[in-house]
Amino acid sequence: MKKPGTFLWIYGMPIVLAGLGVVGLASALFADGLWDWMSWVALGTMTAVALWHAGRRSPAARR
User: What is the pLDDT of residue 9?
Assistant: First the structure.
């Protein structure tokens, strides 16, 4: 596991989500067929992660 406070600890997931967004948008723009499905999966994953984090309660609210 990465140490808290390191570059990847802080920016790892945003970099992965940005990569998914780029892949999803590019595949939706430039190709058809299977690539359309790949764009749905990539952009849907980003949306699902964002909604999951938005719905989580903060540690202070759990007490």
Answer: 87
